[in-house]
Q: What sequence folds into this?
C-alpha cells in the first residue's frame, strides 16, 4: 500500500536528481529556482458571496425538460440509447 504523498516525494527527488545531472548544480538550487519562478497564488476577486466577479451563477447552455424522453433521444442519442 502506498502512503499518501509518497509519489510526490519520489517525483521531487527524481526532478532534483535530473536538475543536478543537467546543470551540475545542487538540487537545492533547483528548489530555490522553482520557488522564485512560481508566481504568487492570487485570490480571485469575489462579490462578497464567494462567486468570482464576472462569473455567472446561471447554468450555461440550453435547457430542456430532462424528463422528456423524446427530447433526450434527440439531443443525446448515444446516451439515451444506453438507458433505453
A:
Amino acid at each position: 500500500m502506498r502512503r499518501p504523498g509518497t509519489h510526490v516525494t519520489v517525483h521531487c527527488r527524481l526532478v532534483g536528481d535530473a536538475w543536478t545531472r543537467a546543470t551540475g548544480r545542487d538540487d537545492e538550487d533547483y528548489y530555490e529556482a522553482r520557488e522564485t519562478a512560481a508566481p504568487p497564488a492570487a485570490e480571485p476577486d469575489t462579490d462578497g458571496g464567494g462567486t468570482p466577479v464576472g462569473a455567472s451563477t446561471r447554468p450555461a447552455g440550453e435547457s430542456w425538460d430532462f424528463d422528456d424522453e423524446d427530447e433526450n433521444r434527440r439531443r443525446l442519442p448515444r446516451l439515451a440509447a444506453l438507458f433505453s
